[in-house]
Amino acid sequence: MDFQLNEEQQAIADLTDQILGDLCTHDRLKSLSASKDFVDREAWAALAEAGVTGAAIPTEHGGLGLGFLATAVALQSAGRHASPVPLLTTVVMGAMPLVEFGTSDQHAVWLPGIADGSQLVAAAMYEPGTAAASPLLQAEPDQDGFRLRGVKPMVDGGLDADLLLVPARFENGRTGVFLVPSDTEGIARQVVEVTNGRSQAHVTFDGVPVTVDQLLGGPEADGSAIVAWIEQRATVAMCMMMAGAAEASIALAAEYTKQREQFGRAVATFQAVSNRAGDSYIDTEAIILTAWQAAWRIDAGLAAEEQTRIAAWWAAEGGYRVVHAAVHVHGGVGVDRDYPLHRHFLLARQLELTLGNGEDHLEALGRALAES
């Protein structure tokens, strides 16, 4: 297993880190948050100009034709800088399934705009009480196609998205994934405040008209398989973001505890503090290693179900420990919203809650190992 990046992937990593490092300063992110800007449009435009947003899109549609790993390293940088850029929603959950399953017409309509940064995408996948692959939202037959009726209550990136990927259930019980422009008649979006301050959308579909041509991959495509494909890549993408958030948290903790003095010496020299720092370093390295392992296998076209579960467990459990330890060793400064740590803490907690309970990942992993 070779985790070395090739020249193009390394360029994406370096460009993303440079762009976000320059633009996502503490003061600027404070200003964006105060103005309720859920997407950093300036940083997004800079990433698009550098080719980062189109890294996974074929060259014939304005992209670079690189694989999953190129976007994964950009996501790690986004987590490191706590940047409100929609790489997860627009690229991983939007562009990538379009590239993999979309028809040539769907490619031509949507991919160039995603590559140049002018089109944002969100996947309206989840509903309470059911899995994303078994949606409650209905696709009712209509003379010209279907009418979508139902609610997707928590759509990440849904407020700013130009296109929504919407799993819906047909009368025969099958699942299809529709490509629905967000300005289609019958769609209503409301703001839902969430933990990290990056609001999500409560999206209502009240008889939204769609046609067969809007089914991702066409009428014969297996919508449940498409949803599972998206979920796996989104999970690994969130693990990469958690890796970046954990890196940034321990870096802030290390710098602060070296400078902060108590009883005439730096608090970093206290055994309790150094022990927690050591544990956080081990957790962070495990998050990075397991996330990279899963991302590398996906990029190489290898089976990655077990590796994804392992990465999700480390990201959820280890990420929780790392950001909490960072807050604790900072003392009162750790909860000060005028200090940058809170941004990484909130991002990590949101990722942890979205990834799900670590015990569930262990249980699923155990079942898979028992069956193998």
Structure notes:
The chain folds into three domains: 7-118, Acyl-CoA dehydrogenase/oxidase, N-terminal domain (Butyryl-Coa Dehydrogenase, subunit A, domain 1, Orthogonal Bundle), CATH 1.10.540.10; 123-221, Beta Barrel (Butyryl-CoA Dehydrogenase, subunit A, domain 2); 224-371, Butyryl-CoA Dehydrogenase, subunit A, domain 3 (Up-down Bundle), CATH 1.20.140. It is globular and about 80 Å long. It has 372 residues and is of the alpha+beta class. It has eleven helices and nine strands. Helices cover 53% and strands 15% of the residues. The strands form three sheets. A four-stranded antiparallel sheet has the order 2-3-7-6, with no helix packed on it. A three-stranded mixed sheet has the order 1-4-5. A two-stranded antiparallel sheet has the order 8-9.
